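Handoff note, outgoing to incoming analyst
You'll be picking up this chain. Sequence as last confirmed:
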Amino acid sequence: MEQRPSNRPPRPTHGQHREPLPTRTIGESTDHRAEVAKARRELEEIRRHHGSTGRSGSLRAAVFGINDGLVSNFSLVLGMAGADLGSHVVILAGVAGLVSGACSMAAGEYVSMRVQREVFEGAINMERREIADEPEAEQKEVEVILRAQGVPPEDAARIAPRVMEDPELALDLMARQELGLDPDELGSPIGAATSSFASFGVGALIPLLPFVLLGFGIALWVSVILSGLCLFVVGALAARLSGRPALFGGFRMLLIGAAAAAVTYGIGKLFGVATTG
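Most recent structure output, in case you need it:
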């Protein structure tokens, strides 16, 4: 009987080199992860260029913390100075305002950031469980997200399974696009509390320092001038962070701070006159 030629490749004999098993899937997975990591680095550079990184958020928080400390303690110091009770009373009130305000800011920032982080982590963990327990439903959601970004339906259907092959990549996509969160920047409660305490303390120290170093009469004027300059600078920085004209922000903050200090100074003056009378 005639034997038909076989299409099966011959088995390697002893000593002959055996072809390695295909590793294309692993290689493709490695290349895919490397490409994702590269794209994330490039995205981070784009964010840094536009000033939308965590450092920008920290700078913004520091500027507003200094502004809060400056306005509140400037008003408090001017109110006590208006009563004309002497430098020691102004210093005592100023130190009390600095410490209590900084502690209050730090505690409030810690609690709010802690609760916010717990809520965000809970939402991300729930999404992680859904990816593990309901991969088909989550893959459909990935397709919807891709189509919402302008990807054609057929391409979305082709890309979604590739995304779901990497659970961490799928989680990152769902967190950013479905939950509106950045898993890399959930914020640190301790860092936020420390930053708030320090920035508020720096701002509150500015109007108080002249009364510590100088006599009462000249210290009052130095405090007003120094605080006014700092109010203008802080307002200009805050305006620049918000994309507004620096001069407008500076004069606006100076006007607000001056108005608050004038009110408290006037109240202090009234109480001082009433006490003297």
